[in-house]
Each structure stands twice: as C-alpha cells, then as structure tokens.
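Hey, I'm writing a tutorial for new members on how sequence and structure tokens pair up, and I'd like a real worked example in the thread rather than a made-up one. If someone can provide the structure for the chain below, I'll link this post from the tutorial.
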Amino acid sequence: MGTFNTSLGEGFILVGFSDFPQLEVFLFVFILVFYLLTLFGNSTIIVLSRLDLRLHTPMYFFLSHLSFLDLCYTTSTVPQLLINLCGFDRTISYGGCVAQLLIFLALVSTECLLLGVMAFDRYAAVCRPLHYTTIMHPQLCQALAISSWVSGLVNSVIQTGLVMAMPLCSHRLNHFFCEMPIFLKLACEDTNGTEVKMFVARTIILIFPAALILGSYGHIARAILRIKSMAGRRKAFGTCGSHLIVVSLFYGSGIYTYLQPIHRYSENEGKFVAVFYTILTPILNPLIYTLRNKDVKGALWKILGKSTDLV
C-alpha cells in the first residue's frame, strides 16, 4: 500500500458500524437516548452543585468537574457517530480528525487523573474525618483540579503529536471517531519506538492514578471495618462504593483499549468497547451518584419545589 500523504490535508473515511448494517438503526436510537440522558444527568449535577449550599463541598466540587468532563468528551464523539449511523456523511477532514483526537485524549486523560484525586478526597473523608476540612481546603481542591486539566492536555498534545507524525497507508479508519490505536494500525512504518513512548505516557496517566485509587481504598476498607456501627459502615460503603463502581468501569475499558499491544488490538472489538466508555460510562456517573445519594436528591427536590412555587 502507498503512503497516505496527510500533509495535503486529505480527510478520512470513518467506517463506523457500516460493516454491521443490521445494527445501525438500533444503535442510532440507543445512542441518541443515552446521549440525551447523559446531557441531562450531568448538567443537572453541575447545576445542583452550584445552586445548593449543602453541595459546596470538595466531593461535589470534583463531581461537577467529572460531570463537565463527561459532557465534553461524549459530545466530542457522539454527534459524529449519529451522523455516521444515518449514512449522511462518513468523512472527517484531516484538521477535524486531529482536533477530535487531541480533545478526546485530553478529556479522557484528565478524567483518569481526576478519578484519582476523588479517591484521595474519599480517603481523607473516611480515614481523616477530624482533619478533612483542613486537608481538603478550597485552595488545594482548585490546585488539584487545575493540575488534572493541565496534565491531561499536556499528555494529549504529546501523544497526538507522535501519532500524527507517522505516515499512514490508508485514509479509511475502521472506527466511528479518530482514536489513537486505529492510527497505529494504519502506520506504514515500524511503530515500535512510537509505541514505547506512548506506552510510557499512557502508563503514567492510567496506572499511577489506578494505583493511588487502590491504595486509597485499601486504607478506606480498613477504616470502615473498624467502625462499630452498622449504620456508619453502610454510609461509608455507600459513599465510596459509587466512586469505586465508576472507577472500575472507566479504567477497565481504558486499560483494555490503550495498554494492550497494538498487534492484538481488534478494530471491531475496539469499536464496541469504545461505545461502552463513550456512551455508557458517562450516563452511569449521574445515575450512581444521584440515586444513591440523599444530599443530591434533597437538593433536586428543593430546586424543583422552588420552581413549582414560582409557577
């Protein structure tokens, strides 16, 4: 195959799920419904976190950042996918593809780091309750959030630069958005050196926060088991369990996609796994945090009650 000269600004063809035409209508309806629920659920958390004083705590500060991340990275891929499923346009420009890859990687990298920060917050709340407000003071929370965003962007710039510098043998991407493993599969040259550099960057973003999360929850589990009250144990497990569910789903799919050797990466499997972490995980965040949390439900009923009174 000849080299695809991206310097000429040629675009890409996104194959999407055209290899499975019998699934396209179902996927369109399924993804559209979940996308709308994601927009509604995460927007609700952001609004409630700002309007209700009871939610002006570090946990909900980080949760509002998480909800904003989910809104952004879902929106960076889903509209393109819906258009693709309709068959109206399966192409994307070179510049659009680079921008999508850069934005998606930045947002996902930021979320990896932010989930680690949220685990540290839960560790401080459960294991250091008397010193919690001193440890998680507003300046530290803001610094941790900003550091997560900046580090995610830096990681994305580095990896996007490495990927887009490679000569490609085709402009046909067997995916529904511009994702890194697909470009490595299309490279015309040996990518071992590039893969090693990218593996190091991905390890820092994925494994280090995951190790922090596991360590934090190890301490949390020991602290919870020392609580004599069953009601206290249930409350602690309920608070931390929701975060742990989100972490397991997000990191599990992320590690499968980004840490396996590229020669083992299956394009078709990768598409369906990508649906999981771009569509399903973002809607689970608001569901898990709101349905299991009395503070959020109380804030929602309070806002709805005020709206009813105004009418």
